Amino acid sequence: MKKTLSLTATLLAASVLLSMPVHAQSVLQVVAQQPPGSGSDAMTRAWAECASRQIGQPTVVQNKAGANGILAINFLKGLPADGQHVMSIGMSQMTITPYVHKQMPYDPIKDFTPIGMIGSTPNVLVVNANLPIKDVKAFIDYVKKNPGRVSYGSAGAGSLTHLTAELFKAQTGAFMVHIPYRGIAPATNDVIAGQTQAMFPGLAAALPHIRSGRIRALAVTGAQRHPALKDVPTMEEAGLKGFDAQQWYGVVGPAGMPAAVVKQLNDAMATVLAQPDFRDKLSAEAVELMPMNPTQFADFMKKDLARWTDLAKERQINLDAA
C-alpha cells in the first residue's frame, strides 16, 4: 500500500506542476522519493512526459530515494523557492519521523512551504478472524483479561501502524505487546495466521483480507465511516472520543516561496483534485480528498506534529535510543 499511495501522491504532484502556466524558468522539477528504474519511477516519468507535451515545457524528475524519504526531503530543502521545485509529501515524513528521530536534517515546519493537502486514508483496527470478538469494547475487555498475552503487529517501529496502536493503548489502558515487521504485508500475514492478534493497517491494504473474511474489522480511524466499510463504526462511535489517526498526503515546496506562487500552485491543485479521473484514482486507494488552502494546510501540519509529539513523549518512543 505504501508504494501505491506514494505513487498516487507523486503523480498528483507532477500533474499540479504541469498544469501551471509557463514560468520564466523553462524546466519544471519534480522531486521523487522512489529510485530510478522502479515501477513507480517509470510511471511518474511517463505521466510527466505526457503532460509536459500538452504545455510545451520540459520536466525533470529528480530521484532521491532512501531513508524513508528523508534524502528527498533534505534535497528539496536546498532547492530555490521559485515555484519550479515541489514534491509530494506524506504524514510519516512531516509528523511521524521528526518525533521518533530527534536528530533530523530538516525541520518539518520551518524548512518548507505548505502548498496544499491532497487527501487522507484511514487506518482500521483488525483482529484475527478466529478471535471471539465482534466490536471494540469486546476487544478491550479481551486484552485486559489477557495481560501480556495479546500482541499487535506493525509495519515497523515508528510507523503509523505502530503509533496508532500506541494511541489505542494510551486511551484504553489496555496493554499489548508490539511486534514490528519490515512492512505491512508480513505484519498482515501474521495477523491472518494468528501469530499476532491485532493491528491497525491502512484501509486499502486491509480491504481484500477483510472482504475475504481472513481478518475482522472492528473500527476505522477518522471522523466518519468510510464508504468501503459502511457497516464498520469509527473509533469515536466505538467509544474512544477524539481518536484520530490517518495517513495524509500533501504538496510542499522549499521555505520562503512567494505567496503569489503558492496561491497559483494551490489553485492548480484544486483544479486537479476536481477532476473525476483523479477522484476515481484516489478512491481506488481508499484516499478521500481533503483540499485545503496553504494556511489551512500549515495549521493542520502543526497540530498533527504537536499531537504525535505529545504521544511519543507519553509513550517514551525514541528510535534514536533504540
What is the overall pLDDT average? 81
Bin the strand percentage.
15-25%
Total number of domains? 2
Number of helices: 11
CATH architecture of the largest domain: 3-Layer(aba) Sandwich
User: Could you state the CATH homologous superfamily of the largest domain?
Assistant: Bordetella uptake gene, domain 1
Helix content: 40-55%
Strand order, sheet with most strands? 2-1-3-10-4-11
Shape type: globular
Parts with pLDDT < 50 across at least 5 consecutive residues: none
Q: Give Rg in angstroms.
A: 20 Å
The count of DSSP E runs of length 2 or more, i.e. the number of strands, is 11
Distance between the termini: 26 Å
Note down, in words, how this protein is organized.
The chain is of the alpha/beta class. The chain folds into two domains: 195 residues, D-Maltodextrin-Binding Protein, domain 2, CATH 3.40.190.150; 106 residues, Periplasmic binding protein-like II (D-Maltodextrin-Binding Protein, domain 2, 3-Layer(aba) Sandwich). It has eleven helices and eleven strands. It has a six-stranded mixed sheet with strand order 2-1-3-10-4-11, with helices on both faces. Helix 2 links the parallel strand 1 and strand 2. The chain starts with a helix and ends in an 8-residue tail after the last helix. The mean pLDDT is 81.
